[in-house]
């Protein structure tokens, strides 16, 4: 730690200084921004810019529109695209209730079928996460569920978790898997969350869902996430329930609300 | 009973007291989401005119949530101190605002009326106040609390050191704790939000924190912010519980959403008191609150989010807390959309709590989907520091890697202490000096690296 040192963008990266940095070993213990040093009381230029870069990435993840064309190309099979009742991002952020319901024209386009499950890829709070992870996860799931009647993938814009309920209800699916971008943090802006709901309908409470969160390159990887999800889906189909009843067997279930945040 | 005011030739009608309070509130996304906000700027000001003429005693005659249905209402009504209320009993809300800002309303006078001020009175007055008014009045109020040190003295700004880790790794948490202590943080509390909310995990975390505190004889308190029922169980198993933490809200139904009641809070407080761990005092409850909590639990009973938030302070007040803080920007842009709304709400929460005699601190913070950034946090921290905030929360580099949001960095709190000439709690400041971390002469934290202090051995 240096006090009143002129800010230098290279002080922690040049070979000489690295070995003298007393925080180097401690940084291996946590990704927290510890041992930053200071200039007077303030953060140094290099740290201020690193923070702004991370914040910019997180904000871009929130505000970038989902690249539906790229996802369609990656998918290479028929799919559906729907919109929630939130017409744009500012409305979406202010009105979570609108993000939970289908726009009337989208609802009119969905046809009833006889499906075991419908997968929905929604932008949520990180379109980057959805664009990077949802199609791959969907394809992994199809491999793991060979005898299931799986509806065409639905891509949803300005969607919240509960939007999947109305989609599944309209399409006559027995369960819905909502793959949705999670609220980005500074260290991870592309984390995907997956919510499984049996017998979904408009108004289904969140307690009736099972959740796998933190799916990204440095968190829960796609293959193990797909294994867990397949297990949950088979259990859900045989027990005809999701949520608290499956919770005890699902190691990743946790809620920030339970600790007050 | 309906309320009216004619402004610019248009007669505005407000169906009842709840509608009037909601319409008078400054604009925020949560009230718009709930369909309670004023539908025009003119209507908002008309509501303020009508509110200004309302006698304060109206709030004693009109419960916003029925007495029979809600234990928070019963608490507010049953504990109202009529003698303390007497000096302001004749005032209107507008008159009350003027009196609060007057020189007659000094520290002594404001302390005397606190038990006579209900949350609804505080909220109503705040709706007629500009940001500077909220600061001026709060600045005159002193709320002092004690456990192992003295929190809330004039000229002091305490801090919560928040060393969270996404997997609750003990060494990772210790590394962040060391970092914070070297910046003079942690006099309010060293408090962890656990990633896993279990009794076993809470015991392990508390054990680690308590060992560090005892080893270096740090005059502060530690806390794992787990659910209050877990804390009771941790006490039963002999855990090192200094403070009892719980998130609270302003209605019975919202508190039920948090899995708590007044009875559970009382039970937990008594259990912790029985441990007798405080050396200077027995204030040991730690509460968090935040605008939007009641609405998100669908438990706001049609009350605007600022007024229902103030009702949470009645719950806090009942249990003699050491610390309370609003998590102002944490709950999301559907409740407070941008920096302007977050800053206003932070000042309102601080004012209302202090007016009611509650030791209010703040997590000056925002999430990545809010229209806010670190510049907004700089503004709010300086405004709150000026208003006499009890404590601020600091995390390494302002980046909470467990809860995924941005708060203040340790640097930021050093900066606000320096800008405003504020010091840590006196016992903690003396400890910093003893440990060779603080230069009393030049009034600044010394640049000390982990290898240059005994604290460095904390991680072994």
Short descriptors:
heterodimer, A: 261 residues, alpha/beta, 6-stranded mixed beta sheet, disordered N terminus, disordered C terminus, B: alpha/beta, Ribosomal Protein L24e, Chain: T, TIM Barrel, 4-stranded parallel beta sheet, 21 helices, ethanolamine ammonia-lyase activity (chain A)
Question: What would you say this structure looks like, in words?
Answer:
The complex is a heterodimer of chains A (261) and B (460). Helices cover 38% and strands 16% of the residues of chain A. Chain A contains eleven helices and six strands. Chain A has helices at residues 15-18, 24-27, 45-63, 68-75, 89-94, 96-99, 104-109, 127-144, 163-171, 222-239, 244-247; strands spanning 79-83, 115-122, 153-157, 173-181, 192-198, 209-215. Chain A has a six-stranded mixed β-sheet, sandwiched between helices. The radius of gyration of chain A is 22 Å and the shape is globular. By secondary structure, chain B is α/β, with parallel strands linked by helices. Chain B folds into two domains: 1-53, ethanolamine ammonia-lyase heavy chain domain like (Ribosomal Protein L24e, Chain: T), CATH 2.30.170; 145-455, Alpha-Beta Barrel (TIM Barrel), CATH 3.20.20.70. Chain B is 44% helix and 12% strand. Chain B has helices at residues 17-24, 29-33, 41-52, 58-61, 71-78, 82-85, 93-101, 107-113, 119-127, 131-140, 170-181, 199-215, 228-236, 252-257, 262-273, 293-296, 305-318, 339-355, 374-387, 410-420, 426-434; strands spanning 3-7, 10-14, 145-146, 150-151, 158-161, 189-192, 222-224, 244-247, 285-289, 321-326, 360-362, 391-394, 399-400, 405-406, 438-439, 444-445. In chain B, a hairpin with a 3-residue loop joins strand 3 and strand 4. The termini of chain B are far apart. The model of chain B has no long low-confidence stretch (mean pLDDT 97). Chains A and B meet through helix 3 of A and helix 2, helix 11, strand 8, strand 14 and helix 20 of B. Chain A: It is an enzyme of class 4 (lyase). Chain A: This is Ethanolamine ammonia-lyase small subunit. Chain A: Catalyzes the deamination of various vicinal amino-alcohols to oxo compounds. Allows this organism to utilize ethanolamine as the sole source of nitrogen and carbon in the presence of external vitamin B12. Chain A: Adenosylcob(III)alamin binds at residues 161, 182, 211.
